[in-house]
UniProtKB/TrEMBL annotation:
Belongs to the Mrp/NBP35 ATP-binding proteins family. Signal peptide: none annotated. Keywords: ATP-binding, Hydrolase, Iron, Iron-sulfur, Metal-binding, Nucleotide-binding. It comes from Idiomarina xiamenensis 10-D-4. It comes from the Bacteria. GO terms for molecular function: 4 iron, 4 sulfur cluster binding; ATP binding; ATP hydrolysis activity; ATP-dependent FeS chaperone activity; metal ion binding. Homodimer. This is Iron-sulfur cluster carrier protein. One of its GO terms (biological process) is iron-sulfur cluster assembly. The lineage of its organism: Bacteria, Pseudomonadati, Pseudomonadota, Gammaproteobacteria, Alteromonadales. Binds and transfers iron-sulfur (Fe-S) clusters to target apoproteins. Can hydrolyze ATP. ATP binds at residues 89-96. HAMAP family: Mrp_NBP35 (MF_02040). The keyword Metal-binding applies.
């Protein structure tokens, strides 16, 4: 029976498992199938697998064993796990909100997660996570101790300099500051480290991306035409740097009324999906413009942390899990 299930799962072709599930990821004991995947899987993803394999009579369990993948600078010592840069061609599309929400979602799925806030134009992560006025502590060896907020490990330019000081920095200073946040922080063992980059695709972003050991990148956009053109520039930038593009996340896809749940495509329809299709990269998700999301971030408690059981929090976990699967498939064949 076990070998039959392993064969059935191996032959599956789903969104998450374009090549099926490898036999070494599956353990079967009594009536329980355990998936020890090298990336994360959401409940929705697991449900898809169970349905597609026709194995709903079994107990299922996820025990992820996240793999540390090759990055753009393999010679650097790595405690920080897989480094994922979050970028946007255009400001204000919700890059920082997406970074925070994805970090919470990854952590809810069982990963150890850190965030570097390198947005020199407005390091907003400390505000979104609360405790913005906390100052950094240092180890006896003068390394920065990351802030521990909502079970995430965080360091931000916002903890180091006043907003207005960082905004006038030029490329080399911004790049040096990012490297310092990366190298001079006493990061614990992490599975994923998300880097909130400054918006845009100019020299600053290019240099910053080149100096980090990057495992993969994602581009955040809204469905607006102007944001889409900028998203394409972002994709081109990562292609030029030979950094795997993990996908496009369409934020503020539709306006969702907090009272009745009605959805309205006020910024246009599925633009992010079109860009993803044109560029041949995955669409990681289409998140609604949802006022309670902004309100909770303004109060320093991310919405999906506060409402972990909500439909939006589940959608965010699905995007986060899909991101990790794409990261694995893009990097694994070259490890
Ligand atoms: N899906 C959403 N629903 C509601 N509000 C959102 C959503 N995404 C982002 N926002 C809000 O929009 C504003 C801008 O978002 P955010 O600061 O994350 O954008 P950004 O792209 O990082 O901006 P910047 O270019 O300044 O770095 C914030 O007030 C945020 O709370």
């Amino acid at each position: 029976m076990s070998s039959q299930i392993v064969a059935q799962l191996g032959a599956l072709k789903t969104r998450y498992f374009p090549h099926g599930i490898a036999p070494q990821w599956i353990t079967i004991e009594q009536q329980t199938v355990t998936l020890r995947l090298p990336f994360l899987l959401s409940q929705q993803g697991l449900h898809e697998v169970i349905e597609a394999a026709g194995l709903s009579g079994w107990q299922w369990q996820l025990a992820p064993q996240i793999e540390r993948l090759r990055n753009s600078q393999p010679e650097l010592p790595m405690r920080t796990g897989n480094v994922i840069v979050v970028s946007s061609g255009k400001g204000g599309v919700g890059k920082s909100s997406v970074t925070v929400s994805l970090a919470i979602a990854l952590q809810q799925l069982g990963a150890r997660v850190g965030i570097i806030d390198a947005d020199i134009y407005g390091p907003s992560i400390p505000t979104m996570l609360g405790r913005a006025s906390d100052s950094l502590q240092f180890t006896s060896r003068n390394k920065m101790i990351p802030q521990q907020v909502h079970d995430l490990q965080v360091n931000s330019l916002g903890y180091l300099v006043a907003d207005k000081d960082a905004t006038i920095w030029r490329g080399p200073m911004a790049s040096a500051a990012l490297q310092q946040l990366f190298k001079d922080t006493d990061w614990p063992q992490l599975d994923y480290l998300l880097v909130d980059m400054p918006p845009g695709t100019g020299d600053i972003q290019l240099t910053m991306a080149q100096k980090l050991p990057v495992t993969g990148a994602l581009v955040v956009t809204t469905p607006q035409t102007v944001a889409l053109a900028d998203a394409q520039k972002g994709i081109a930038m990562f292609n030029k740097l030979d950094i795997p593009l993990l996908g496009v996340l369409e934020n503020m896809s539709v306006y969702q009324c907090p009272s009745c749940g009605h959805q309205e495509a006020i910024f246009g329809d599925s633009g992010g999906a079109q860009v993803a299709a044109e560029q041949g990269v995955p669409l990681l998700g289409q998140w609604p413009l949802f006022a309670p999301l902004r309100e909770s971030l303004d109060q320093g408690v991310p919405y999906n942390r506060q409402h972990a059981d909500s439909a939006i929090a589940a959608q965010m976990r699905d995007s986060a899990a899909f991101l990790t699967a794409n990261l694995y498939y893009q990097r694994h064949d070259r490890v």
